[in-house]
Amino acid sequence: MFIVPTRLSRLCLALTALTLAISGALPGAIGAARAETSDWAVNEGGRMRLVVLPADEHGRRAGALQIEPAPGWITYWREPGDAGIPPSITLAPDTGYTLTEVSYPVPKLIDSGDLRDIGYDGPVTLPLTLSGPADGRPSSGELKASVFIGLCRNICIPFQAEFQLSLTLSETADAAETALVAAARESLPEPPSPDFAVRSHALSADGKELSLTVTVPEATRQDEAEIFVTGPSGHVFFKERERRLEGNALSIVLPISGLPRKYDIHGKSWGVLVKAGGRAMETTLAFD
Q1: C-alpha distances out from residue 178 to 26, 51, 61, 64, 121, Å
Q2: Cα 25 from chain centroid?
Q3: Residue ranges of the alpha helices (H) in 133-220?
Q4: Which of 13-17, 182-186, 244-248 has the lowest mean pLDDT?
Q5: SS3 of 251, please?
Q6: Which of 177, 188, 64 is CA-nearest to residue 130?
Q7: I need a labelling partner for 180 at 20 to 30 A (CA). Which of 57, 254, 259, 286 fits?
Q8: What is the pLDDT of residue 32?
């Protein structure tokens, strides 16, 4: 095992390991199916499995991707920070199912040498929503999913697993699985509310700074709040140039860099996650 000092070297290692994963060289990459919960797929950095609950009256199925990094290992949020691999879930098109939602519990900043990652240093469960066949056929049959995540501890190991679940119309919800999915939903950030919301946001004329003012919960300390802004896919901004707390109004200035050439912000929406006062709130920033 060796130290990965830069984002580029992590990426090179990731591509090498991905080639091995696809060729079947990564142990534990195939999760055999049983009913609505797959077996655990296991590798050196941890394990994961897929859970799918019975269909509702509209053919939708709640589910979850359960990830358990090994002690000392981490996995990643949807935008991983300075380095890392975000989760990817792909359903086989011939199964007739569509992945309509993947949600992410509140992540944390994780220092890794000179790099700052955004993710989870313990077990995490990502809630999912699946829709059945578009032609109205019963929501049953074989569900095939390919899942790709990153697990890191000094080195990054891309972890790919293929899952197959046999879904029938006569399923009954297992209490443990139902509780698992419900708990995952409870771990998501809350929506904006009168005492926790973005008051204003603006991108500077040169596109190099984003200013935000957020109403934060009472008793929030100026040094405790964390803000993650997600721009175009692959871009996350969390390193601040300045911050100021006046009453319950927190003002932040984030440097913006690395946007696509000739990127036009008008009409776009970015995401923002704010952690403050022991709570977390997620919303969107719309740019006219």
Answers
A1: 31, 9, 11, 10, 24
A2: 26
A3: 175-186
A4: 13-17
A5: strand
A6: 64
A7: 57
A8: 41
